[in-house]
Amino acid sequence: MTDTPQHSPRPLRVLAAMSGGVDSAVAAARAAEAGHDVTGVHLALSADPQSFRTGARGCCTIEDSRDARRAADVIGIPFYVWDLADRFREDVVEDFVAEYEAGRTPNPCLRCNEKIKFAALLDKALALGFDAVCTGHYAKIVEHADGGRELHRASDAAKDQSYVLGVLDEKQLAHALFPLGDTVTTKDEIRAEAERRGLTVARKPDSHDICFIADGDTQGFLARRLGTAEGEIVDEAGNRLGTHEGAYGFTIGQRKGLRIGTPAADGKPRYVLDISPVNNTVTVGPAEALDVSALTAIRPRWCGTAPAGPGTYTAQLRAHGGETEVTAEAGAGELTVTFAEPVRGVAPGQAIVLYDGTRVVGSATIASTTRATTGV
């Protein structure tokens, strides 16, 4: 059995998700150049889009829609705008708010890939007779001789986005195209390619932070949605150190913005160790108290067949984080993971993505952790 990068032997009817940025525009152009019958679509995800972005923040604006349309015109493909604002609000935005309210730290990009781009969008594409959805993600699909597919890291490790695609299952992978993942291409080279193709988005800034919080003020966004509720900041012994205006405004491992008036006895910085929405309390302590030796994750999703029995993998815990060696075993609706060496800053609500070499095995949502120093 041979493994090769994804190259379809026949032209496909492809729906290219075009955000209005350079990556998705070049991906659509490459798909069309490969001989596929490509149609571009921009997803209107905001019920009240702004006329213009704020620098590199935000997306899904009127400006982005126009940029995507201009790119489709240059490529020479049909273009449509699909309104998925209600679905996005329910599956991504409301989920984001609910997770923070429950004291967890969600990743909305994973949820969007799972619920919008490769669920709502893909379902509609297949119903309309399309064979695949194409996006500008940097990841690679490897196809076996028997037709089975695997998701792998992009050839350019610096641009790899396989972490946020770890929620895709076998069916979704069968209908996905990632034209940017097969070649070792820097962002500057992608921009240069866009210029050669006459795409005006060649120098458009990348979108950063959370797309539906255009000003980048996550705490302000949550405060507007959840209101303020004064609570206590305490140390591990329960001693009151300060107050806050809402536990949802903190994340595990946070150091800045704690506003603690009393310095620690050892003079060292303190970090958020625990967030309790039940009593609206934030617990802080020393950095070493953040060390985690194991975790339990729920809602596992496998990029293929679920692994049988315990196995040794590497794990990635955040979109731009490194890998760490783990032993993991899938159970009934959950995943238990033990780290070879303790790791820090692991928060419930985050995704853990397992890798076997460059292959994405699957992902799950962290539910609880075991501290290395206390065993709880």
TrEMBL record:
Residues 294-366 form the tRNA-specific 2-thiouridylase MnmA-like C-terminal domain. It comes from Streptomyces actuosus. It comes from the Bacteria. Its EC number is 2.8.1.13. ATP binds at residues 17-24, 43, 136. The lineage of its organism: Bacteria, Bacillati, Actinomycetota, Actinomycetes, Kitasatosporales. InterPro entries: MnmA-like (IPR004506), MnmA-like_C (IPR046885), MnmA-like_central (IPR046884), MnmA-like_central_sf (IPR023382), Rossmann-like_a/b/a_fold (IPR014729). The record marks 137, 350 as: Interaction with tRNA. SUPFAM superfamilies: Adenine nucleotide alpha hydrolases-like (SSF52402). Coiled coil: none annotated. This is tRNA-specific 2-thiouridylase MnmA. Belongs to the MnmA/TRMU family. GO terms for molecular function: tRNA-uridine 2-sulfurtransferase activity.
